[in-house]
Amino acid sequence: MTADNTILGRCPDCNEPISETEMVIDYYSERGNRITTATCPSCVAVVTVV
To answer: For residue range 14-43, what is the model confidence (pLDDT) as tens digits?
Structure first.
């Protein structure tokens, strides 16, 4: 098994980069916007990735 260090985005609270391995939910809204939630390793909270 290999580590996946692909960056999804950043935490909106602390600006920490969030990797794909932290992803919780990834979906598209009715308007077609991609919404990704993930666990921030610094805040230890689920956030919407920006």
So the answer is: 999 999 999 999 999 999 999 999 999 999
Q: Is the dihedral of CA 16, 20, 21, 22 positive or negative?
A: positive
Cα radius of gyration (the chain): 11
The Cβ of residue 37 has, within 10 Å, a number of other Cβ atoms equal to 16
DSSP for 5-47?
Answer: --EEEE-TTT--EEEGGGEEEEEE-TTS-EEEEEEETTTTEEE
Residues 39, 42, 45, 47, CA torsion sign: negative
Q: Which pTM value belongs to this model?
A: 0.80
